[in-house]
What does this fold into?
Amino acid sequence: MRFSLGFFPTLRDAPSDAEIESHKLMIRAGLIRRVSSGIYTLLPLGLRVHKKVEDICRRELGISNAQELLMPTLNPAELWQKTGRWDVYGKELMRVKDRHDREFCLGPTHEEVITNLVANEVRSYRDLPLNLFQIQTKFRDEIRPRFGVMRGREFVMKDGYSFDVDDENASKSYENMVAAYERIFKGCGLSFSAVEADSGAIGGSFSHEFMVLANSGEEEISNCESCGYTSNVEKTPVKLTYNDESSNGDVEKVHTPNAHTVEEISELLKVPNSNVLKTLIYKGQKNNYAVLIPGDRKLNEVKLGNITNETGLVLASATLVKELTKAEVGFAGPIGLENVSVIADNSIKGRKNLIAGANETDYHHINVKEGSDFECEAFADLLIAEDGDECPSCNAPLSHQRGIEVGHVFKLGTKYSDSLDATYLDENGETKTIVMGCYGIGIGRTVAAAIEQNHDENGIVWPLPLAPYSVDIIPMNMDDPDCVEIAEKIYDELVHKFNIECVLDDRNERPGVKFNDSDLIGFPFKVIIGKKGLIEKKVEVKSRKTGKVEFVDFDNACQFIADLVSSKVSL
Ligand SMILES: [Zn+2]
It folds into this structure.
């Protein structure tokens, strides 16, 4: 591609609504343009990268015997009503009506359509297993679209589904897909981690998330260096024990003016944070909850949602706190608290010397003992794992890093096959339910995550497999016929003889402008034809990633570049 004929609208500055690096760089490097909130046009460079990710998916899924099909974007409401998700999915489901007033949705995922298809086609155990996928535009009416294509309303997904005769075979399909996903993200040249995850709203009993590791990631991952355990921090089990010294006396109310926070109270009473009982008041759909955790730890809201079986739990407002505890925020405690469910972290059981809010503004209780001074309705693991916590598999200390979720695989069981009658006849002629798995990769998210992981102050640093073009040929002086001739010759040979994806920057621009654009877009290799090189009959080949330079004879230049692009040599 000649730069002069290309549509590469690079920008010096990012728009003010771009909060994260990948969003800024995708705009600045001319990969995307915003059409409306959470809706983007993929420009030619952005589409090329998208297609690279798609092609890697197709290649690896094909090796794993998954077949591509294409389902409609428009899904009839009836199918979604059968699985109950028409009601459950809420406002994120984009709903439309046709001219006959029939209801449809724009599919955010396709379990309904594909399970219905398979239910109609599969008769016998001989028709199974099946593994089908599509790469398609999805819709999700996000309440607050942001981060560019990372959380858009319209986005491209690879979604796949497996169908098996029983759990054992479904597990094999699942493992097969986990292996394919590992090859896909490795094939993209990304550093990633496959972690155990909470299954969330999609249901199912077991799942893994694929995270691209990046400091800017919104997910936190627990890691054990000793045994290799990895898990989304939302799911990591926490086991803590505190060995309190027995308190000297009975519960006593003490004056603690203006001490609202754990830090303020521990400072005032000269005790460690861990001796302060944090009492958090949550409002649910079914009930209000007082959640007790040690003062030195953070609550895991996902675990709280699972134990209470509540979706949409929120911290109580100051008004509700006052109504329930008769005190200002900061003085809640379990003693004498009524009309709320008291739920405590496992580590609170048997604590002997706690400080708790007295449900009276500016007062706390000291010498509080669990069991005798207050009782809990339930104990559960309610904490967020932290560095140094014990690994649930081997007890070695855990560490944490951040990541961006780009893929998610689920064992679905029979959740969808039950509601859509997806059955088959087994060897004995008995009717059995098909066991399913589902597997997603956000194509646009993978592109954005690749940028979050691979950029510097000058722009994007594409991993070679995802780069829109591998090589940027830069003649330094367009007025010098020798310079232009060599550049054209190398371009011609790389494109036609070596089949390499190249850009020839044939613009009448200063070298500085060309270098800046090249770094911003992130072409992995620059081939620079300059004055000194022309005298010595050498071109300068420079790596975007390492900054290293090699001067190569004109005659060997194309072969050297081809070897670089095929990773036979490195720079
Ligand atoms: Zn471990």
About this structure: Residues 469-565 form a domain with the Rossmann fold fold (CATH 3.40.50.800). Residues 289 and 341 are 5 Å apart (CA to CA). The pocket of zinc ion is lined by residues 224, 226-227, 229, 391, 393-394, 396 (CB under 6 Å).
